[in-house]
Structure formats: structure tokens, C-alpha cells
Amino acid sequence: MIPEHLREAARRAGALPDPALLAECEETFFIASGPGGQHRNKTESGVRLTHRPTAVTVTATERRSQAQNRGAALERLRDRLRALSHRPKVRRPTAPTRGARERRLREKKHKAVRKAARRGGED
Q1: What is the C-alpha separation between 37 and 56, in angstroms, rounded?
Q2: Which one, 66, 70, 92, 99, has the greatest CB density within 10 A?
Q3: Gap between the Cα atoms of 114 and 18, Å rounded
Q4: What's the confidence (pLDDT) of residue 35?
Q5: Beta 56-60 vs 46-51: how paired, if at all?
Q6: pLDDT for 44-55, tens place per residue?
Q7: DSSP label at residue 121
Q8: Per CATH, which fold does 4-85 belong to?
């Protein structure tokens, strides 16, 4: 169960433009390992964004460019905030209708008759 204040903060932040959303985030850079050669292995191109009001953290390391990783991380943050702000629809239990009950019983009776017919000559 997600607390309502976090859901509301995520909803509000999701509507902000990119610069305002970045202003609410703590942005850290780190060396992203993996393919990409010397440029990737020596520069701090990995981006980690932590949205302070909701404590949601995302990272992006797949590009060699810090600016491209920042854009990817911002997109992921928006997706995560959208998921956090979603309120699932309340499910109410329902009873089967009379017609559905009758159909189910009729089908069970039909199967029982067929099975009894297969047993046929054992009596």
C-alpha cells in the first residue's frame, strides 16, 4: 500500500516540465562500466537521479554521453512517477448470476452422464 502523500507528490512531479523536475532531484554522476571503450571507462557518463520528495531513484548508463544518459534517466523517472501515482481501481466481489449457475450445473450434469455412459458395461 502506497502512502497517499507519496502518490500525490508523484502526481504533482509528473506534471512538471523537465527543468523543474530536475531541480527537485539530486543528480549524481559516476563511471559507467561496460562496452564503449576508453571514453566510457574514463568519464563519469552514468547518471543517477533521486527524486527527493518521493525517494524514487533511477539510473542510466547505456550511452557514452552524460547528456543522453540524463535524458534517459529523466524519462525513466517520469515512468516510475507515473506508476507510483496510479491508483488501481477498487475491485468489488460479485456473485454469479442465476443463469450462470444454471449453465454450470447443466454442464456438470452433462459431463456426469457422458462419464456414466463410458462406464456402461461394468455393472
Answers
A1: 30
A2: 70
A3: 67
A4: 72
A5: antiparallel
A6: 889 999 999 999
A7: G
A8: Double Stranded RNA Binding Domain (3.30.160)
The pTM for the full model equals: 0.69
CB distance 30 to 60 below 8 Å: no
DSSP string for 87-103: -PPPP---PPPHHHHHH
Tell me how long the chain is: 123
Q: Mind giving me the DSSP string for 22-55?
A: HHTEEEEEEPPPSSSHHHHHHS--EEEEEETTTT
In which order are the strands placed within the sheet that holds 46-51?
Answer: 25-30, 46-51, 56-60
Taking the CA of residue 14 as centre, how many other CA atoms within 13 Å lie in the half-sphere pointing to its CB? 17
Identity of the residue numbered 33: S
CA distance 27 to 70: 9
The three-class DSSP label of residue 58 is strand
The one-letter code for the residue type at 117 is A
